[in-house]
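Thread: "does anyone have the structure for this chain?"

Original post by V.I.:
We have the sequence but no experimental structure in hand. Need at least a predicted one for the grant figures.
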Amino acid sequence: MSPSRRRIAAIAIVVAFVAAGCGSDGTPEISLGEDTETLGVGTASPDDLPGPTGTDDVFVTAYRDFNGGEQSLADVAEGRPVVLNFFASWCPTCVAEMPDFEAVNQQLSDQVQLVGLATEDAPGDALALAGRTGVTYPLGLDPAGAFFRVFQGLGMPTTAFLTAEGEVAHVFTGQLSDDALVDRIEEFLL
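Reply from O.Q.:
Generated one for you, tokens below.
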């Protein structure tokens, strides 16, 4: 499939989500606007996307945490680059890489902020997975996969590497070991 067809397909999926309205978990309807495109490497900062309908929040940087509160990638990052990992409890490679992500978090938390978003997963299952794997970095919910599609996720897990300025530096689909994750952080963010 050509890049332009993939972009159109991703936008169509997001439009379908918007048309569906609120999810069963009370997630607000998301309005991305007609001209919104997905984020590719070196493209617009996530701050350029509109937020949930009826708010001034920025969509990509605002997410719900497991306690129902709203978090911002910018606030959580505190000026650091962000490694945004899309995971799900039903994804074996996601489960396998989470301890490695936690090891990197322990090693580099003063230089980069890891954030995990449970994508198209039941919140209870995702929370249980975080407990089993010992993850301590911030986690949030992407119940309908809207964030995942904006970042051009093609499969699970997907990891986006965002500079401190919010630019998408790299997106990787597949399992990352701790060494491979550190290599990508050093190459694209530090």
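V.I.: this helps a lot. The domain at 3-188 is CATH 3.40.30.10 (Glutaredoxin).
O.Q.: and The beta strands are 62-65, 70-72, 82-87, 113-119, 139-142, 158-162, 168-173.
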